[in-house]
Amino acid sequence: MQEEGEYNWVVKKGLGKEAKQKAMLAASYYQENKLPIVDIMKLVGNKSKPTLYKYLAIQGRRNCKECGVIFWNRQQEMESAFYEKHFKKKK
Ligand SMILES: [Zn+2]
Questions:
Q1: Biggest alpha carbon distance in the chain?
Q2: Distances (CA, A) of 79 to 29, 54, 62, 74, 75
Q3: What's the gap in Å between 58 CA and the centre of ligand 1?
Q4: CA of 68 to the centre of ligand 1 (A)
Q5: If you measure from the C-alpha of residue 82 to the centroid of ligand 1, how many angstroms do you get, rounded to a whole number?
Q6: Nearest alpha-carbon partner for 73 in 14, 13, 36, 65
Q7: pLDDT of residue 52
Q8: How deeply is 60 buried, as exposed, middle or buried, from its count of CB atoms within 10 A (0-12, 13-18, 19+)?
Q9: Do residues 69 and 82 lie in contact, with contact meaning Cβ atoms separated by under 8 Å?
């Protein structure tokens, strides 16, 4: 499956049961901040790095469009996320 198509499918239809479990597992390993991404891929049983990052994004991992900082916020859109602290500074 082509990456972009897969991404849209995941966003529209959500993840299957197995993928959902993988996503949760990947996020918990990732948030522990001890393992490199390749090791998380092995533990989760995921061979594709973009897919793993999609799983993390579904779990709430966001990349600030302004400065690229990584933060967690499920409420924000994946494609247009901004780190909340920027807004607090501006006030
Ligand atoms: Zn930022």
A1: 45
A2: 23, 12, 9, 12, 12
A3: 19
A4: 6
A5: 6
A6: 65
A7: 95
A8: middle
A9: no
Q: Which two tokens stand for residue 5?
A: 């198509």
Give the span between the Cα atoms of 83 and 72, in whole angstroms. 9
Taking the centre of ligand 1 as the mean of its atom positions, its distance from the CA of residue 89, in whole angstroms, is 11
Token look-up 């469009």 returns 65
User: How many angstroms from the chain centroid is the CA of residue 15?
Assistant: 13
Q: What phi, psi does 63 have (nearest 5°)?
A: -120, 115
Placement of tokens 């790095």 in the chain = 49
Contact 49, 1 (CB under 8 A): no
Tokens 């499918």 belong to residue? 9
pLDDT 10s digits, 14-69: 678 889 999 999 999 999 989 999 999 999 999 999 999 999 999 999 999 999 99
Residues 90 and 82 sit within 8 Å (Cβ to Cβ): no
